[in-house]
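pls ignore typos typing on phone
aspartic acid + seq
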Amino acid sequence: MTLDRRQFTGLTAAAAMVVPQTGDAAELRADPGPLLIATWPFGLAACKQSLATLRKGEGILDAVEQGIRVTEADPAVDSVGVGGAPNAAGVVQLDACIMDGPSRRAGSVAGLEGYPHPISVARRVMQRTKHVMLVGAGAAQFAAEQGFATQQLLTDAQRQRWLEWKARQPLPKPAAIPNHDTIALLGVDAEGRMAGGCSTSGLAYKLPGRVGDSPLIGGGLYVDGDVGAAGATGIGENILRYCGSFLIVEFMRSGLDPTAACRKAVERIVQGERRPAADLSVNFVALDRRGRFGAAGTDQGFRYAVVTKDRAEIMQPVLVET
Ligand code: ASP
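k done
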């Protein structure tokens, strides 16, 4: 958190040898090296894994998947994968999606129970079916047929927290929003190929069956290989109604840099909601095919991770307060 964001962005842009946004992606980047960006400080380990995957010679989709799997496997991350927060019935229901920039192909699962790596199941939906999204029991059946291993996702710590939450219900007033954080990871490789993924247990103690923005293409994630990628974290209901990630990619398409595009999308949501920005919890990261990146959000505590071949940093996004 020591490096000034503008300095860092400038360095990265310079290293990327920016050229106009036309033609084949490979022509646009003169060996700037790959760049990975992810929501929250826990995204740093994921981005590092993504970089290591690329270094092994695997593709950007592999890198995104392998990076997100690190977060999903970490029980200390209490909002993604194993150790994720359960729903109101005490069941962990996971959401994830993945999108390939060059082809715009995508895969998604929602309300998946019992499988620790929804990002991999989502990728398999993309690769092995004619569909984009599978939900609930159908998603679990598909995961089983594809040979994915099951695992107990509810940790003792999460069960204990859920029991305490349950004992306090019903509350006279709506409860404060419990913890909820998603990993959205975006990457561009040295040839300018982009991909992104998103994985979460969603809002803690959500109604069973509730689906947020994270597995929705255009809501919690969007990748257009000709333009850029965006991903979200926050209260999904406030993100998906504005197609937040798609909106950011469209703003980048119209010429805004990633930071300005994120800021404009957050401002659009704040204006549309007519309530204090601090109540909304909408936060985005974005990356364009030129290797520029940025983030903006309404949460004071929102941070994001950036990893290149030269550095690995936790960054502070633009805070939108009104
Ligand atoms: N966006 C996620 C959801 O609404 C949660 C989060 O990112 O904090 O499910």
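The first helix runs from residue 5 to 15. The CA atoms of residues 39 and 183 lie 5 Å apart. more later
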